[in-house]
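[Discussion] Sanity-checking designs against the backbone

I'm trying to build intuition for which residues belong where. Below is a structure token string of 277 positions. I'd appreciate it if someone posts a full sequence so I can compare it with mine line by line.
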């Protein structure tokens, strides 16, 4: 089963000419899950041939503009192209009034928008799909913010296949925006792929704490403690034209670290159960 993340928007609050605000697409089998919907999300989806028609679920981390300003455009275009099936939006905060404002100012859409309010103080099973479970967990930011853990369901192995070594069910964790905090790594323990914000390099650690963000070193420590296979960094401050320093600082702690760039695809690594250390 295809289980991969396509990073689309990798900027933090202020977009740059080369980077859009947060928006990512997770492919699971034939479905697409949109994670955050920053400004420009619909253009990026079109550019990378990720059809809107396969998106039935949108997960929003928090209601800061750089994570939701793309929502109105996307909702509107989905109506324009004749969407008929329900769209589920999972988000914290006052997402209802955001959608109500959209209806009031721009008119109703012809499909149903189902809002799932996210609220929890520790990891919570949010939804169970055919081959996937999605959990929400709280992050530490300036407003109510949640990360999401996408976990493949355990497959039932047919007993007549001899010598079959099963694969461990894979998991992907999305962690942005957040300051580091002790429980996070435990909550996403065993995630094979982690997307974690790295707004700053280590010299701006003090600033990262006052703004409730992380440095790339903070992100790498989470990956080590969670036992991840691969770490993808994103949500970069606009001050960095070149991200080599952020990458290097993280790689000194966790070697399998990569920088998210617009349109990059990262497979959730697959490991056989007898390879688990
Ligand atoms: Zn942000
Ligand atoms: Zn934020």
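Best answer:
Here's mine. Compare freely.
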């Amino acid at each position: 089963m295809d289980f991969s993340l396509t990073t689309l928007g990798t900027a933090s609050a202020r977009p740059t000419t080369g980077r859009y605000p947060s928006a990512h697409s997770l492919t699971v089998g034939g479905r697409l899950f949109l994670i955050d919907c920053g400004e420009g999300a619909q253009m990026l989806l079109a550019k990378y041939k990720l059809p809107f028609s396969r998106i039935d679920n949108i997960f929003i981390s928090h209601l800061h503009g750089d994570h939701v300003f793309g929502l109105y455009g996307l909702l509107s275009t989905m109506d324009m192209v004749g969407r008929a099936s329900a769209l589920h939006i999972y988000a914290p905060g006052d997402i209802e009034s955001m959608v109500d404002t959209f209806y009031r100012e721009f008119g109703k859409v012809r499909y149903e928008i189902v809002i799932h309010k996210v609220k929890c103080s520790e990891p919570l099973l949010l939804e169970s799909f055919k081959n996937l479970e999605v959990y929400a967990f709280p992050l530490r930011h300036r407003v109510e913010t949640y990360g999401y853990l996408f976990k493949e369901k355990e497959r039932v192995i047919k007993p007549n296949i001899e010598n079959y070594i099963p694969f461990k069910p894979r998991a992907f964790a999305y962690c942005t925006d957040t300051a580091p905090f002790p429980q996070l790594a435990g909550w996403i323990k065993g995630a094979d792929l982690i997307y974690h914000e790295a707004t700053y390099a280590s010299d701006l650690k003090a600033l990262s704490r006052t703004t409730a963000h992380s440095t790339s070193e903070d992100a790498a420590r989470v990956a080590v403690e969670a036992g991840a296979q691969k770490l993808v960094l994103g949500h970069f401050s606009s001050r960095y034209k070149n991200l080599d320093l952020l990458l290097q600082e993280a790689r000194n702690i966790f070697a399998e670290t990569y920088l998210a760039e617009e349109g990059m695809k990262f497979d959730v690594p697959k490991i056989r159960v007898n390879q688990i250390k």
